[in-house]
Amino acid sequence: MPHRTSILIVDDEDQVRDVLCENLAECGFKVDVAADGQQALSMIDAGTCAPQVVITDIIMPRKEGLEVIMELRRRHPAIRLIAISGGGRTKSADFLQLAKKLGADAVLPKPLDIDQLEKTVRSFLA
Amino acid sequence: MVKEPLGGPRVAERLQVLVIDDDATDRMAIRRHLLSAALNSDVHEADTGAAGIALLRERRFDCVFVDYRLPDMEGTSLLQVFYDIANDQMPAPFVMLTGQGGEEVMAEALRWGAHDYIVKDHITGPSVLIALSKAREIFDLKRARHSAEDKLRQAQKMDAVGQLTSGIAHDFNNLLTVILGNTRMMRRRLAEIPPAQGMAIAPKVDAVESAAQRGADLVRHLMVFSRQQELKSATVDIGAALAHTVTLLERTLGKGINLVLTAEQGMRPVHVDATLLENAVINVSVNARDAMPQGGTLTISARPVVFNDISHVLISIADTGTGMPEHVRERIFEPFFTTKPAGEGTGLGLAMVYGFIRQTGGHIEVDSEAGRGTTFRIYLPQAREPLTNKEVNHAT
Questions:
Q1: How far is the alpha carbon of A117 from chain B, nearest alpha carbon, in Å?
Q2: Which of B42, B160, B210, B253 has the most neighbouring CB atoms within 10 Å?
Q3: In B, which residues are within 8 Å of A24 by CB distance?
Q4: Alpha-carbon distance B196 to nearest alpha carbon in chain A (angstroms)
Q5: Which residue of A has its CA nearest to B225?
Q6: Residue B8: its pLDDT value, please?
């Protein structure tokens, strides 16, 4: 079996996680999921998951996406990062622009255009 | 058109004074004292409450003297006709003329909105002038306080609506991701089965997807209102940008609308998303056109002003249309508020303009009077850096 690109999806909404997982798996990627930033970092640190690409939501319980981005940039600089967000829940802040500044390789707004997401992932591999 | 400043005409115009009193001697005394003080004033007189009320309904006065006892009514009853008890507002400064020892009348007069009083036996030059200036000062203070409270309440309401909106937007964007992601999967499954079998399902998937896309557009508009759109700001020469917008408007607004642009030369530039600013000006202008079904003049102007102690460029967009009543003007920037027939307006246009201007660090306000027209004023903070040649850009 050829080596497949491994993706980790981090989102606290399980339906969002499921639908992204299904769609990306269908695109031929190996997909893992985590429900928050804490879980994602533990999985990577423990080696149970070795993603080339991490797709992370921004607003999450326990550990927010922005922190995940900063920590991954520091500890695993080779991992490519895509930040996704549906906007601030309580205050108006441009989280996606902030994510980009903190080191996300790409940012995509929700509702996600999955074709666009697939294209973005593939652009990292080219 | 722009309303007169608070408190009415003050400089260069003559002071309009009304005396409502059935006693010709009292009326004459007040007139004489005002004129001998070399006050540039016109003194109008009414000898009954009804005549006074009619004059007050007809025109604006800078001060009103009213007798406590009129042939057809009590002076306090006349006050009650005009007193806006909820907002503690009178249409003009009022001075009550009371009898000797009429403390109760004085207290009652003040309770019903009078700003000061004079005892009738003491109608002297100084007492008239002091009462006049005191009444006008109290009137101005109350009016300013009311307007500040009003602005604060409006701002708080808009903030609350903004919070609600961004909360809904965030959750809906997740839901729409789930819906659109699943329709994508359904489409792929459909592609795997013979078309004959999928025929009945494919249009349903299309319908779900297009509804979800419409939902996504709606949420995007709401996010503009809650100041969450991506701005592509650049240093913009407002004069040039408006000139470009006006060429577009000439085509859009059609005949019957006289379009006037006045922009001061040499203004400092503004840091703003030029395309979105153009959309905002067009949006306001199209509303203005709709308010002028018989045609009229739309004046767009730009000039530098100091607003909240900061240098701004003020863009004003004034029409000569039907204007809006107070209860419409107050809600004009709220999302989903529309006066257009159902199905014709989304109620999001001006809400988006509001969100964009606030996100840019500017302010927008509106002045309107039914029958006289409407003026929108957009204040944009001036950029620190001067305009470079390369950036003399406008919306394209």
A1: 11
A2: B253
A3: none
A4: 24
A5: A92
A6: 41
Out of A22, A59, A110, name the one closest to residue B177 (CB).
Answer: A110
**Beta partners for B377?**
B316, B365
Domains and CATH numbers, chain A: 6-125 (3.40.50.2300)
pLDDT of residue A95: 81
Averaged over B267-275, what is the pLDDT?
92
Mutate to test the interface with A, among B166, B171, B177, B187 (most CBs of A within 10 A): B177
**In the prediction, which pLDDT does B343 show?**
74
Between CA B181 and CA B227 the distance in angstroms is 27
pLDDT tens digit sequence for B116-149: 999 988 888 899 999 999 999 999 999 999 989 8
Q: Are strands B296-307 and B257-263 parallel, antiparallel or unpaired?
A: parallel
Task: Tell me the chain B residues in contact with residue A20 when contact means C-beta distances shorter than 8 Å.
Answer: 177, 181
Q: What is the pLDDT of residue B224?
A: 85
Predicted-complex ipTM score? 0.92
Asked if residues A67 and A43 have their Cβ atoms less than 8 Å apart, the reply is no
Residue written as token pair 């895509």: A82
From chain B, pick out residues whose CB is under 8 angstroms from the CB of A91.
163, 166
Instruction: Tell me how many residue pairs between chain A and chain B have CB atoms under 8 A apart.
Output: 82
